[in-house]
Amino acid sequence: MTLVKFNSDKNKSEGTLIPSFNNVFDSIFTDSFFSGRDIAVVPAVNICETPDHFQIELAAPGLVKEEFKINLERNLLSISVEKEQENQQQGKNFSRREFSYTSFVRSFTLPESADENNIEAKYNDGILLLQIAKREEAKVTTRQISIS
Q1: Which domains, from first to last, does the chain contain?
Q2: Shortest CA distance to 45 belongs to which of 102, 4, 101?
Q3: From the CB of residue 83, how many other CB atoms can be counted at a distance below 10 Å?
Q4: Which of 137, 94, 93, 96 has the alpha carbon at shortest distance from 115?
Q5: According to DSSP H, which parts of 17-72 are helical?
Q6: Is the distance from CB of 4 to CB of 79 less than 8 angstroms?
Q7: Cα–Cα distance between 85 and 87 in angstroms, integer?
Q8: Which of 20, 67, 81, 125 is least crowded, fewest Cβ atoms below 10 Å from its Cβ?
Q9: What does the pLDDT look like over 53-90, one tens digit per residue?
Q10: How far, CA to CA in Å, does 36 sit from each of 39, 54, 80, 99?
Q11: Does 46 score more than 70 pLDDT?
Q12: pLDDT class of 47 with cuts at 50, 70, 90
């Protein structure tokens, strides 16, 4: 199973002592203006393979199962969430609003041995668990061979 990767930090210099022009502005805006704000992070994923299936565990606490979208297009499995919350507090002469957005997409390329018609998903205690069965011909069979 292959995790689809992309580089969101393509403007950042690697291995240099002088930051690039874009890095200076990125650090000013993210450190100064947005300090104290929640920064979106892509949830961690564990992927394992057993003789009968592939298993994906995605850590996404604080969500409910209805907020997840799981799509399969050809052999690309995508897990996404888009959530918006609005809190409003009013005082004597002021009003404060805070908007909170949570969104992410994780995509995985399924191997040819995966059975795309046999995928199960469960969400329990902040962990989204996907079980992807293997095709019968891809399952490892072992047998004892006698010596004559």
Answers
A1: 40-138 (2.60.40.790)
A2: 4
A3: 13
A4: 137
A5: 21-28
A6: no
A7: 7
A8: 125
A9: 999 999 988 888 999 999 999 889 999 998 776 555 66
A10: 9, 39, 25, 13
A11: yes
A12: very high
